[in-house]
Amino acid sequence: MRVLLKITDIIDVEVLQKIQDSFSDATGLAAVTVDYKGNPITKYSNFSEFCNCVRKDSDNRDCCYHSDAHGGIESARSGKPSIYLCHGGLVDVAVPIMVKGNYLGAIMAGQVKIDEEEMKRLPLGTGHELTDFSEHPEITELYERALTTTLTQVKSAADLLYTIANYLVEKQMIHIIQEELHNKNIELMEEVKLRSEVEASLKEADLKALQAQINPHFLFNVLNTIGRLALLEGAEKTQDMIYAFSDMMRYTLKKEKNNVVSLKEEIEHAQNYLSIQKMRLGNRLNYSVQIDEMTEDILCPFMTIQPFVENAIIHAIEPNAKGGSVKITAEIQKEGAILKVVDDGKGIPKDRIQKILDGTYEADGREKNTGIGINNANKRLMYYYGVDYGVEIKSELEKGTEITIKIPRKSLVGRGL
Q: I need a labelling partner for 59 at 20 to 30 A (CA). Which of 46, 187, 285, 409 fits?
């Protein structure tokens, strides 16, 4: 939501007060600056004795306020200084302070007399007749002593205030725009840096995959041969483990030139990993996978889920003599899918979670570290979907950890798909 500017956001009040005082001293005109509601934001400069006396009466004071408000409205409508008669019969000026057509306030000046014929041609600020002070000789005497000048001088003073006000506004608006551009440039540089880091990580991963791919067909032929031997020898678990491993390797090598997969493919890869770990850990590992079929065709970055599943096995299941459980879920939402990887392990200290996501956490010699894989997955999610997306980690010590990944249906911006 756009925040409305106030006059104090645009003009330095101390600077404005000095300009206003100097203007009054030079011209003899009274002056004050008000916001768009008519509330003064500066002190009165050179206020006339006539006006001070008139405003002692509450009814007359209300007429003064109404007259100033009317003048301010007229200047806001035209976008130019408005010259008018106040209800007491003195000439006043309202100089609007505008930003992109929006009225922020005005500089009110005047409290002077000019030629009577010219005064008769000026509009009344109240829209009504002048107030009769004939029964108040002290007020009439103060009126006669009010400063007399010419309409030309009043117009020149109004133009001077208008020029000064606009200069101050334009100068500050340029500063505000430059500051906004600076902040946007910083955000853009951070996003460019993030994308560069992710692209470097992807290139490094591609190189490592290429180095590992000596001869994939030979590897799969060997694995299939071992699987058939296991079947002939009645070793069904060995056969299942080999085929699960083959599927994992095939998935990894097949995707080295395509970093985008369907959610169904990614979850099947994680299931193969879990089935192998189940054969290794036996009853110490329980896992479940609950996937909404409507999520299966949603695209996601390659290797989005497996690093979090591996992290759960290493840090939640293996250290516990009794083992534990891992649960993977995928639910459809209007804008996409919500993935969760939940374990019931010992949890992660709060001060470590952000370091894991940032890639700054370093494991000591007693524990394995999969923080790099989680950090890369988090960066790739932000790279593909934008900085508003990524990984959320909730964890409670001795109760477990919940990883949440939001996958939108929109195009993957990092690859322009």
A: 46
DSSP summary character for residue 3: P
DSSP secondary structure, 121-153, as one string: TSPBSSSSPPP--TT-HHHHHHHHTS-B--HHH
Residue 220: per-residue pLDDT: 55
Q: Which DSSP letter does residue 315 get?
A: I
Instruction: Assess whether 195 and 120 both reside in one domain.
Output: no
Burial label, 334 (beta-carbon count in 10 A; 0-12, 13-18, 19+): exposed
pLDDT of residue 132: 83
Euclidean distance between CA atoms 143 and 134, whole angstroms = 11
Residue that terminates a domain, selected from 177, 198, 217:
177
Q: Are residues 145 and 102 in the same domain?
A: yes
| 305, 405 contact by CB (below 8 A) | yes
What CATH number corresponds to the domain at position 81? 3.30.450.20
**297 and 159 belong to one structural domain:** no
CB 107, CB 163: distance < 8 Å: no
Where a domain ends, among 148, 177, 206?
177
Residue 215: CATH number of its domain: 3.30.565.10
The 3-class SS string of 327-345 reads EEEEEEECCEEEEEEEECC
- Could you list the residue range(s) of the whole structural domain that residue 37 is in? 7-177
Query: Mean pLDDT, 10 residues at a time, over the chain (417 residues)?
Result: 62 85 88 83 88 84 79 83 88 86 85 88 74 86 89 89 82 74 79 74 62 51 63 72 73 66 90 85 92 90 88 90 94 88 92 82 58 76 81 92 88 47
Q: What pLDDT does 1 receive?
A: 37
